[in-house]
């Protein structure tokens, strides 16, 4: 997970960036990577670590449904469907272009392809770690605005103070994955990611129970 990097010292973040998590989630992911390295050293266990940035979007066949919902894009789209309260924007005083957090969104199908590529090259690349992201950063406010464009709904939003442990900007350099895995995201634009989620959610407004 990209959460292992904590507050970026440089943007975009490459795999050599210091690992200084700022929350328990990031620390747990860093511990997992360390355990994998020990297992490889002790038992010859082969692995490739894929550090997702913000996984998003939905596949046509398998969709996307979380309970409770914690991901920004589906939360925003549920508001558009009328199934949720206004979107909450945590913090508008960050040092970013509009004051809200900036994140790098990578489509779940692009992540799935990276897994296949990593498995195919597991023996050659064992012990390596790769960032998975589009290389483009979008703010929370920009995500809400794009969702309004995609859905045609004036999605209501409200602002609240910052949440502890939220870096201002987290954007990937995925050059290493492109070079060594031969990976390139097909969903490079935020609009295409949101459209894939919106398409599935309109057809399945009650999630997997529909």
TrEMBL record:
List cofactor names only: NAD(+)
Q: Name one GO biological process term.
A: galactose catabolic process via UDP-galactose, Leloir pathway
Q: Which SUPFAM superfamilies match?
A: NAD(P)-binding Rossmann-fold domains (SSF51735)
- Answer whether the UniProt record assigns the keyword Isomerase to this protein: yes
Q: Which UniProt keywords apply?
A: Carbohydrate metabolism, Isomerase, NAD
**KW Ribonucleoprotein (keyword) present:** no
Molecular function in Gene Ontology: UDP-glucose 4-epimerase activity
State the coiled-coil residue ranges.
none
Q: Where is the NAD(P)-binding domain?
A: 1-188
Family assignment from sequence similarity:
Belongs to the NAD(P)-dependent epimerase/dehydratase family.
Q: What is this protein called?
A: NAD(P)-binding domain-containing protein
- The organism named in the record is marine sediment metagenome
């Amino acid at each position: 997970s990209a959460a292992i990097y904590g507050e970026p010292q440089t943007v975009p973040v490459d795999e050599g960036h210091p690992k200084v998590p700022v929350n328990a989630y990031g620390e747990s992911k860093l511990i997992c990577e360390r355990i994998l390295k020990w297992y490889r050293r002790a038992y010859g266990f082969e692995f490739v670590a894929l550090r997702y940035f913000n996984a998003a979007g939905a596949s046509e066949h398998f969709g996307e449904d979380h309970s409770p919902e914690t991901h920004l894009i589906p939360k925003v789209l549920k508001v558009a469907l009328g199934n949720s309260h206004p979107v909450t924007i945590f913090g508008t005083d960050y040092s970013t272009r509009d004051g809200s957090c900036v994140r790098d969104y990578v489509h779940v199908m692009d992540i799935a392809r990276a897994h296949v590529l990593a498995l195919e090259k597991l023996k050659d690349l064992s012990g390596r770690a790769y960032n998975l992201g589009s290389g483009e950063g979008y703010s929370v406010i920009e995500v809400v605005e794009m969702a309004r464009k995609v859905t045609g709904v004036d999605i209501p939003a409200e602002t609240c103070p910052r949440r502890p442990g939220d870096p201002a900007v987290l954007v990937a350099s995925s050059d290493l994955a492109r070079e060594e895995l031969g990976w390139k995201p097909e969903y490079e634009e935020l609009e295409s990611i949101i459209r894939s989620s919106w398409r599935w959610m309109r057809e399945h407004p009650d999630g997997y129970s529909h």
